[in-house]
Amino acid sequence: MMPYTIEIIAAIDMLIVVLFAVFLKMARDTKNQNETLKRELEDFKKDHLHSFTTMLNKIAENEKQISEKEKNIISQTNLRVNQLESKIYKDFDMYRQQGRQY
Asked: Fewer Cβ in 10 A, N or C end of the chain?
């Protein structure tokens, strides 16, 4: 009976050692996966922050270009309106009758 009990205890001890080794391997693998995911997340953050910053810079540059174009368009429109206004007054008053007392 005694050798049988020792065999059972030895088998249980070996099972405990094997299970503990498996647990340690799983814990190490989980830690490695966690570190890998952290690195990938940091890389992802850096890439997207860089992309976001680049897009903001492009938007600011485009806004500046649009603003300059708007100023040019407004200036040119004002010039054309003034020329047209001058031409209308000149053509309307070609017989020097505008402002004449009737």
From this structure: C
